[in-house]
Structure formats: structure tokens, C-alpha cells
Task: inverse folding
């Protein structure tokens, strides 16, 4: 994705699908080593992911699926797209409990568990 308008759609899908407080991604990241992935179902935005490629690894982040599209393979598809941003490189991600099963099915292995704290 290189369109700042689509980046706004991506931001909304992440905020509504994770859910997280809205925190727009900077348009300056478009076209670099960070790639924004937007999944659609019948043309409608349904899920998102982000990948950063560098230092021989793909870092997969910000995976979210809108509630009405869950359990339809959207999360797996958008995660796989991000995972294979650099197919020869290994990939890592931080998973929520909700996505852990999907990531295992895609071949990810759990390494450690930690708690994320958020202060609004």
C-alpha cells in the first residue's frame, strides 16, 4: 500500500478490530521497509497487518480483523501476506491470546509470554 487515503482505512480497521485506541500510522512509512496490509472481503475492508523487514527478519505487527469478518480466514490471510513480505527471511510476531491459534497454524512457535499494560 502506498496510498495515504488507504492508510487511513488501515488505521480504522486496526482501531476497530483489535481494538486499540486510534493511533494513526505516519504516512512517511509508506513505500519503505514497513508494509501495510489491508484485507478485503467482497471489496469491504475486513482486516489488517503490518510488516517491518530488516536485519534479516520480518517483524509482523498490528494484526486485526473486524468482528463481523472473524472466523472466515481473514486474519490468517493477512498475517500470511505480512509474514511472507520477505519470503527467505524468518518472521516473528507478538500474539494476543485470540490470535495464537491462527499463528500456530501458520507455523509460528511460541517463545515466551508477557503482559502488555496500557494506560489510557
Result:
Amino acid at each position: 500500500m502506498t496510498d495515504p487515503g488507504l492508510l487511513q482505512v488501515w488505521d480504522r480497521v486496526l482501531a476497530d478490530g483489535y481494538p486499540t485506541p486510534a493511533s494513526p500510522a505516519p504516512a512517511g512509512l509508506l513505500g519503505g521497509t514497513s508494509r501495510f496490509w489491508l484485507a478485503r472481503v467482497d471489496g469491504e475492508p475486513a482486516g489488517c497487518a503490518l510488516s517491518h523487514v530488516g536485519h534479516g527478519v520480518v517483524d509482523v505487527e498490528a494484526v486485526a480483523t473486524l468482528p463481523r469478518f472473524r472466523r472466515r480466514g481473514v486474519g490468517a490471510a493477512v498475517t500470511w501476506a505480512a509474514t511472507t513480505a520477505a519470503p527467505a527471511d524468518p518472521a516473528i510476531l507478538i500474539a494476543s491470546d485470540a490470535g495464537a491459534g491462527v499463528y500456530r497454524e501458520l507455523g509460528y512457535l511460541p517463545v515466551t509470554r508477557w503482559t502488555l499494560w496500557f494506560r489510557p
Summary: Helices lie at 4-17, 74-83, 100-105. The longest strand covers residues 44-54. The chain has a mean pLDDT of 92. DSSP finds three helices and four strands in the chain.
